[in-house]
Amino acid sequence: MTAHLLVCCPPATGHVNPTLAIVAELARRGHRVSYPTTEDFAARVAEAGARPILYRSTVPSAASEVEWPVDHAGGLALFLGEAEAVVPWELTAFDEDRPDLVLYDLTALGGRILARHWDVPAIQLSPVLVTPLRVHRDFNRLMGHKPAWIAYRARFRRFLDANGISLDIDEYVGDPQRCVVMIPREFQPSPDRVSDRHVFVGPCLRAGDPQSSWDPPPPGRRVVYVSLGSCYANQPDFYRECIAAFGRLEPWHVVLSVGTRVDPAGLGELPPNVDVYPSVPQLEVLRRASAFITHGGTGSVLEALANAVPMVVVPQAVDHPANARQVLRLGLGRALAPERVTADALREAVLAISGDPEVAGRLAAMRRRIAGSGGGVAAADVVEESLARELTS
């Protein structure tokens, strides 16, 4: 059978790319996929086989002058604001064309509301480490004295009440009806503590912005790739440390992806072995890379693991510190706190991990697990199983 599927995913690159890998497989199987998105992502959504439906997002774009919050409450409040704005529009837009199932990214906080309104199944998509319900509640108790957290929770409670949801906030967010987890089970801390409603399908990899490109260095050069992602890229001092660490260092070639807000001219004179780009085709670069200096966003970490590239993680916010801990715990690279970043520290870390055969062995094993995990195909299977259960219930 074919079905009409509604995909809800705020326009943040690290979440959109894996979601589109699933969308492409569902579209290939003949399902009709509707995907609210912004102009920045509309072409990619259409190329994946879905119908892009444009709306005005409240989430800052990569090119905007608005800085993403580094505090937990501030980051979550951004996505709550997005849900408050978009849910009424989605309810109106699809009431005459009701979907058969709602697929929603875990940052699309209105996904379960939409599914409840239309009485259809909902499947959460998690491109990041799973946070079990118990940990959600522990974290709430830990943060409960902070004014910003109290204000966020009160606002969220009003949002749920206004939409007829009686579940407590932690249960609404942390205990989905079904969840497709787009990471290797081996990368999840204590996977045995995760509910059996969570299905680990491994990374759902898909190329990024087709407009980006890069010029690979000549054969024999070792590429160190540097990126702080799309939201935390406006850090020229950080890039200067990277240039100082590897500029003119043989046989290394530095590829810096600095976003649209950093002027390369402001980074000083570039050595001949340093290239600076607003963005690059990350998967393509990682296939050539010998080391990756990253902010630790889950999408970037998984793409590195799929290509067995050792990492130096410099975590910025949200899921980055947890990913850095996992990279360290599993022996897949190193981590540096942002305040400890210097040219010497970066150079020492990269040279250590890129020359360590034990790190290389662990990365090779993880790459094999990822290759056999199913990815977008396995995720689409979960969706179709849910649709079949709905038909027979």
Task: Please tell me about this protein's structure.
The protein is α/β, with parallel strands linked by helices. 44% of the residues lie in helices and 15% in strands. It is built from 14 helices and 13 strands. The protein has helices spanning 13-28, 39-47, 72-94, 111-118, 133-143, 147-162, 169-174, 236-246, 282-288, 298-306, 320-329, 343-354, 357-371, 375-392; strands spanning 4-8, 32-37, 51-54, 101-105, 122-126, 179-181, 198-200, 222-227, 252-257, 274-277, 289-294, 311-313, 333-335. The strands form two sheets. Strands 3-2-1-4-5-6-7 form a seven-stranded parallel β-sheet. A six-stranded parallel β-sheet has the order 10-9-8-11-12-13, with helices on both faces. Strand 1, helix 1 and strand 2 form a beta-alpha-beta unit. Helix 3 (72-94) packs parallel to helix 6. It is globular, with a radius of gyration of 21 Å. The mean pLDDT is 92.
Could you give a quick summary of the protein structure above?
The chain is α/β, with parallel strands linked by helices and 393 residues long. Helix content is 44%, strand content 15%.
Low-confidence stretches are none
Q: In angstroms, what is the radius of gyration? A: 21 Å
Largest sheet features:
7 strands, parallel
In what order do the strands lie side by side in the largest sheet? Answer: 3-2-1-4-5-6-7
Query: Average pLDDT across residues?
Result: 92
Q: Quick one: how many beta strands?
A: 13
Helix content: 40-55%
Shape verdict: globular
| Tally of helical runs | 14
Terminal residue distance: 16 Å
- Strand proportion, as a percent range, falls in 15-25%
Content-based structural category: alpha/beta
Order of helices and strands: EHEHEHEHEHHHEEEHEEHEHEHEHHH
